[in-house]
Amino acid sequence: MLVCIPDVLSKPEVAEFRCLMDAADWEDGRSTAGAQSALVKRNEQLPPDGELARALGRRIISALTGNPKFVSAAVPLQIFPPLFNRYTAAGNHHFGIHVDNAVRGDPLTGLRIRTDLSVTLFLAEPEEYEGGELVVEDTYGSHEVKLPAGDCVLYPSTSLHMVTPVTRGARVASFFWLQSMVRDAHARSMIYDLDGAIQALVERLGRDDPETVKLTGIYHNLIRYWAEV
After folding, report:
1. Which pLDDT value is given to residue 41?
2. Which of 152, 160, 192 is nearest to 176 (CA)?
3. How far apart are CA 64 and CA 84, in angstroms?
4. What residue ranges do the domains of the chain occupy?
5. Which of 34, 65, 86, 144 has its CA 20 to 30 A from that of 151?
6. Does residue 146 contact residue 133 with C-beta atoms inside 8 Å?
7. pLDDT tens figures, 190-217
8. Architecture of domain 3-180
9. Cα distance between residue 208 and residue 191, in whole Å
């Protein structure tokens, strides 16, 4: 399941992020790559243990955990501290096809999570750069993702994916992973679709309508059944 979530950050928030990030020192992005990923990864990133990355990451997590669509799609249990990367044409930057590590650990906090979902939050407008598409492979084929600044995409961490070479400008984004309360991807997709149906009923019939109440009960019982806490 690939889910795009608009307006996680407002345009003024994106502008503030970029102002702070553009003034920062960047390092080789391979510092946080696994052994296999490091062979195909060419980009820059903010030092993951730096105060700027941590502060901006906390703001992203706060925005996402208050976003109903994100909560519905992810049912998050643990969110890895967001990282920040930059792909430039001058650096011939790209990230070849790979699968994310199954487990991620944060040396600062000791947090260790199973990576169920990967998240990319775009911090550059599509017209600022050429190339740099996130390409995700799933059962239904290949999907290219290039969203407006402030929007994010969630996709299974088990997916083969890549970032195509940037040929003009700079692609700036935050990326991270999360462990869901619902480990099973098919169950998580079903729960997300059911929540969408409930929200449509709420708009049409109201939250107190018997059919809405019935489906809401089924929704919560499914989460109780599938949740790992």
Report:
1. 82
2. 152
3. 16
4. 3-180, 185-226
5. 34
6. yes
7. 999 999 999 999 999 999 999 999 999 9
8. Sandwich (2.60)
9. 20
Which residue's structure tokens are 């997709």? Answer: 189
Give the model confidence (pLDDT) of 22-47 as tens digits. 999 999 877 666 556 666 889 999 99
Distances (CA, A) of 153 to 15, 104, 105, 116, 188: 20, 19, 22, 14, 16
Q: What length is written for the chain? A: 229
- The answer to whether 81 and 106 have CB atoms below 8 angstroms apart is yes
What is the distance between the terminal CA atoms of the chain, rounded to a whole angstrom? 22
Residue 227's region, left for phi above 0, alpha for psi from -120 to 50, else beta, is beta
pLDDT at 91: 87
What is the reported pLDDT for 111? 95
Could you give the CA distance from residue 102 to residue 116 in angstroms, rounded to a whole number?
8
Which amino acid would we find at residue 171? Answer: R
Interatomic CA distance for residues 72 and 55, integer angstroms: 25
The SS3 call for residue 68 is helix
Contacts of 203 (CB under 8 A, 6+ apart): none
Q: Tell me the sheet residues that pair with 134.
A: 145, 163
Q: What is the mean pLDDT of each run of 10 residues along the chain (229 residues)?
A: 96 98 91 64 93 98 97 97 95 91 94 97 98 92 96 96 96 98 94 95 93 94 91
